[in-house]
Amino acid sequence: MSTTGCNGCRNAEPFPIDFTMAFHPIVDLTAGEVWGYEALVRGTGGQGAFEVLRQVNEDNRYTFDQACRVKAIELAGSKLTANSKAMLSINFLPNAVYEPSACIRSSLAAAARAKFDPRRLMFEFTENEEMTDTAHVEHIVAEYKRMGFTTALDDFGAGYAGLNLLAKFQPDLIKIDMEIIRGVDTSAVRRAIVRGLLSIGRDLDINVIAEGVETHGELQALREAGVKLFQGYYFAKPEIERFQLEEEIPQLRTAA
């Protein structure tokens, strides 16, 4: 799988294996609907994300990043219902983006081909990838927001930075890391951390998603804290090249 370069972006070696995407719903329990879907890389031969991502290196990082975006958008355009307003969340590699306004061209072209509204695109970057140039990442986030995309900081509370990273650039959303979510219903400390993050979000006009929700107890504790957006196996597991709809997620009807 390969892609062409663009002005301001680095040409790279083709990615060594084929891959596709699985999609994991993000639900809004207040509205009782699927708010969006996160695109997660999978091998076409059934390989998990780790087996694909371990093939990423400095020579093919840009190619992989661009191809992931295009694949996710094309699948969303062809498989989501025409009246869907759900967001499409794509993980991007900050170290693969050399000039955001140039490197977004293939994504916009894919959206045009697929008749997918680019205003429904959300780009996630993770704390777990070491950022060699935080000023450059700040520039990427600012440019993406200027162009009308939603931005999200994934795995918040884990990885190389936390509040320091949030202070440098404010995304539209933060996704609380699942290690904080795990067992939140039985931990007063974890509940206090979640409440603190929600307070920060309100002050900075940043929405919060709780990811990795697996039990009813966790869900109830998070709802009581004020969380409205959720993602996790409690609701659904990611499915390859398939988007689960509201009627396929019974928890949307029973959570209230």
Automatic annotation (TrEMBL):
InterPro entries: Cyclic-di-GMP_PDE-like (IPR050706), EAL_dom (IPR001633), EAL_sf (IPR035919). It comes from the Bacteria. Pfam families: EAL. One of its GO terms (molecular function) is cyclic-guanylate-specific phosphodiesterase activity. CDD domains: EAL. Residues 2-252 form the EAL domain. This is Signaling protein. It comes from Devosia pacifica.
